[in-house]
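[09:14] KT: can someone run the structure on this one? pasting the chain below
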Amino acid sequence: MRPRLRDLTGKYGLLPIVWIGMAVSAFQQLVGINVIFYYSSSLWQSVGVAETDSLLLSLFTSLVNIVGTVIAIMLVDRVGRKPLLLAGSAGMTVALGLAAFAFGHATGSGEEVTLPFVWGVVALVSASSFVLFFALSWGAVVWVLLGEMFPLRIRAAAMGVATATQWLANWLITVSFPSLRDWSLPGSYSIYAGFALLSFFFVLKFVQETKGKTLEEMRG
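[09:31] RB: done, structure tokens below
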């Protein structure tokens, strides 16, 4: 039978498993990963990095993302979905916190903003570590998890809702970052670090390992 959205309804508006899938999808974006990809060049320029150097840093970030994705492919079946997500959340929290602290040492204003060399290195390492931890966990594992966690009868409809949630969160983070950056770049990264920390506890409490489980076990 063709899946319908009303098949997802339950006691709490939607079935608990659908809420979990939506939350996982939202957290994937709320940690701010697309801020790095969409605004990378302007981000580095905003703390005094030359335009040519900022473009090279953007390229480096993309390479780190590729490396992290390959690592995720190699580990997802060996380590498991939930452990990888927890490791990614913990790593992202620390990396984003360090990035926020480093960006807080920028001096000057307007076009005269500079980031001292030491703190520039810390910011680069932190931002790159954030991308690496995301790529080896939430970047790839979320899609594997979403493809496994829903019962077959509602899988197509539930995946559609989860994907829509992800794009909505992506839009929210993308359009809000310029205003947040103008308010406070360290504050922006602190917010993303907060979401990364929340994602750790969410996975710890609500996300179950799904590989190899029967449908009855997945339903609890």
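[09:33] KT: thanks! The CA atoms of residues 120 and 150 lie 44 Å apart.
[09:34] RB: yep, looked fine to me
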